Sequence to fold (436 residues):
Amino acid sequence: MKNKSIKEDSRELHKKTRDYLTNILLPFWMERSPDLEYGGFLSYFDRNGHPTGETTKTLLMQIRFLYTFSAVHRAGYGNGRCAEFACKAAKFIAKHYWDERNGGWFWIADRSGKPTCKAKIGYGQCFSMYAFSEYCLATGDLFGRKMAEKTYEAICANMADTQHGGYYEMMNEDWRPEKPGRFGGDRKSLDVHMHMMEALTTFHEMTGNPSHRRRLEEVIGILTEKMMHPVNGLGYMQFSLDFQPLAPILFATDWGRDAGTGDGSRGPVTLTSPGHNIELVWLLLHAADTLGVVRETYAEVVRRNCDHCIQFGIDQEYGGVYADVPMEEPTRQKEKQFWQQAESMIGLLDAYSMFKDEKYWLAFRNIYDFVFSKFVNYPGGGEWFERLDREGNPLDDALGHSWKICYHTVRSMIQVVKRLEKIAEKSKTGTAKVRT
Fold:
């Protein structure tokens, strides 16, 4: 261990992260995922980076590939190839997943694009609006705007809860709510409303429409006023339709790889996800930027969630952030999942930039070191393992499957590079203990 100025450290990490993104992580997915025979993308890869032979195409993965390659191109990476991937993907997705009769997007298809599950899952609807908006902004292709607007119209007509506010999440092909309980027809989640916020942020950025701005402001209000604990400010996971917090469960919807108890229970009502909370933090700040609202408006949201992550979410001994933890006591569950690491790094850098408090930099550095020493599987091509135990041993060593691809990892690295560059430019004083 040695002391190093944050400015110096951020410069070194900026170069390391950018090199990893451009030379290792992006090539992994650009070379493996495009399905040159049928269109769209293949998402199943083992720990060695080899295809597993599974070819099912979930909407979530296809649409997240569209978002990711669009965002890569928009950020200036990929030498134009990612725009080509995105263009072909946009056409494949629109052709095979859009429901011409009822509107909205089917949930799962086979390799050729034939739907095998026609459920309307809110998670997929908002991500589709997000991805097609990003595609339009990245390439200028108005087909992206057309599909994003069609998605928005379907969401407003079928998902919006006009009685309680917010959005329904689990629906049948014709948009009728699913059964209650584990089928989710009587629940709402912070997760889907957070992703609706990020989707509406990019959608409003694309359209500039005042009504879209109001929709975005509305969902921000729901998140900050109805979905966070009134005292500690942390996010509850799930709610009744009228926003009463409920003990979270795993839904019976086919996600591909969820593992839970027999009744689907995940834990008590006070269970929270530090990684999810910090993902909400940085997406909220990005929404504020897009709306022209000063970031300090949400300073308390940022502080409370990042401080809780540091106190209860981050493993100070081994590094990394835990998956789910109680709101006000240490966790007994020490599993670490890839996406919480990816999102926490972004939000903690935002917290450091906002408050100039070294503890947020050190927390970022803790997770960063754990990611690059434990999660990144260099022998397998450079993508991240899905789940590790506390010490960093793989519990699930797949690099890609029905809901894990490059969306979190690539987006994280793009956003981390941007923030490290700004910190390197602005930091003048301060030292941080870093691993060397």
